[in-house]
Amino acid sequence: MSRSQPVQHVAQSTVTVHTRGRGLFEVTSRVADAVTASNVQTGVVNVFVQHTSCSLLIGENADPDVVGDLERFFARLVPDGDPLFRHRDEGPDDMPAHVRSVLTGVTLSIPVHGGKPLLGTWQGVFLFEHRLEAHQRKLTISTFGH
Amino acid sequence: MSRSQPVQHVAQSTVTVHTRGRGLFEVTSRVADAVTASNVQTGVVNVFVQHTSCSLLIGENADPDVVGDLERFFARLVPDGDPLFRHRDEGPDDMPAHVRSVLTGVTLSIPVHGGKPLLGTWQGVFLFEHRLEAHQRKLTISTFGH
Amino acid sequence: MSRSQPVQHVAQSTVTVHTRGRGLFEVTSRVADAVTASNVQTGVVNVFVQHTSCSLLIGENADPDVVGDLERFFARLVPDGDPLFRHRDEGPDDMPAHVRSVLTGVTLSIPVHGGKPLLGTWQGVFLFEHRLEAHQRKLTISTFGH
User: Fold this and answer.
1) Which residue segment(s) compose the domain that C129 sits in?
2) In this complex, is the C-beta atom of B98 within 8 Å of any C-beta atom belonging to chain A?
3) Pairing state of beta strands C107-113 and B9-18?
4) What gap in Å lies between CA A83 and CA B66, rounded to an integer?
5) Which ranges of chain C have pLDDT less than 50?
6) How far apart are CA C82 and CA C75, in angstroms?
């Protein structure tokens, strides 16, 4: 499988995700919808979250225990209220949210093939909310290709 | 160094990497071959692995101790059989593989310059197999540019 | 907000960042300058660092305590001189620098909108120097779009 054709499009949109506090929220369908709207068949889609206390990741979306285990792992690795941290203006989950965001990242690029994100069978795109309270998070989705 | 020219190509291909169980497998030449085949001289190449229990990273490829040390670090950070994890359908390395994949990521974008990935002198692209057993892993390589 | 127009440009430049030893160095204005020079209004910019002992991240750039806390977190997670590591040719910070680079990554893709990187209000782009001594680090900035 290899192709080489003129690039014809760049499409960009911003969507809002309403989180319900700390945890993983699947956004795969939001990304797929933006790719469909772009009319790009072959290319790459970039997903970017404009915040420093949540992040994006690609993980297993079949067994709900996986997202629970991911949250438990990060809660142990970056404990709330850790005396190591000086930045705590917004509470014990403030600086841990920034660290968790840095460890997982705020930008993902995914190939587009056949007009869809070319994810593996078990892969889903997740927004990882690191603050304890619910937030509105902005995702910018940019699709390139022909 | 700065250039501005029409974008002419997007090329996409999928290759299979045969891992031999847990550890790092260098795929730099696979990425370079796909860039050569694309005829792109200046642009960006995205490498994406369609799995949730392996990952991609850019690391030092000169001293073999580095990849051994990376594996030892992740084995200690995310121990197999950790009682924290509920998802263990496929054994003690199942959930640790997902966590290691999230910590290192499944997507890399690398500049292309002079028809080659513009890596630093000591940088190599690695597929990091997190399962104990050998697997066949799919990489999608998408190259953009002119 | 959604657009679909011909892609017209790919611009690529390399800049040097002089670090002053371990810590975070903001490079947001370097990235913004490259985007301005590219004349791209809507697209994506990729930032890539050609080294294995520093990295790139997007983090909070308002409170200086945040970058100090990030450094303290990584110093505890990946201790210098850890007997786990065999690769120590360049001193006790050698292998920890490689691990920190892998955990945070060497490549970032950011949407471009209105001729600027579309960062959130509190987001800055940082080069994270992991070696104790000062270094010259090369960043390649590639901007795509129309």
Assistant:
1) 22-145
2) yes
3) unpaired
4) 32
5) 1-3
6) 11
**Nearest CA among C15, C95, C25 for reference residue C56:** C25
- Scan for tokens 């101790």, then name that residue: B65
Round the average pLDDT of chain A to a whole number and report it: 94
How far apart are the two ends of chain C, measured CA to CA in Å?
A: 16
Q: What DSSP letter does each residue of B64-120 carry, written as one string? A: HHHHHHHHHHHHHHS-TT-TT----TT-TTHHHHHHHHHHH-SEEEEEEETTEE---
Classify residue A26: in a domain, yes or no: no
Distance CA A140, CA C46 (A): 15
The per-type count for chain A, helices as H runs and strands as E runs, is: 3, 8
- Is there a domain that residue C88 lies in? yes
Do the domain assignments include residue A95?
yes
Q: Which residues of chain A have pLDDT under 50?
A: 1-3
Does some domain include residue A6?
Answer: no
Q: Are strands A23-26 and A123-129 parallel, antiparallel or unpaired?
A: antiparallel
Q: How far apart are CA A144 and CA C61, in angstroms?
A: 29
Q: Give the minimum alpha-carbon distance from C71 to chain A in angstroms, rounded to a whole number.
A: 10
Q: What is the pLDDT of residues C44-59, one digit of tens each?
A: 999 999 999 999 999 9
Q: What pLDDT does residue C16 have?
A: 98
When divided into structural domains, chain A yields a total of 1
Q: 10 Å Cβ neighbour count for B16?
A: 9
Q: Is C63 on the interface with A (CB under 8 A)?
A: yes
How many residue pairs bridge chain A and chain C with CB atoms within 8 Å of each other? 114
CATH number of the structural domain spanning residue A61:
2.60.120.460
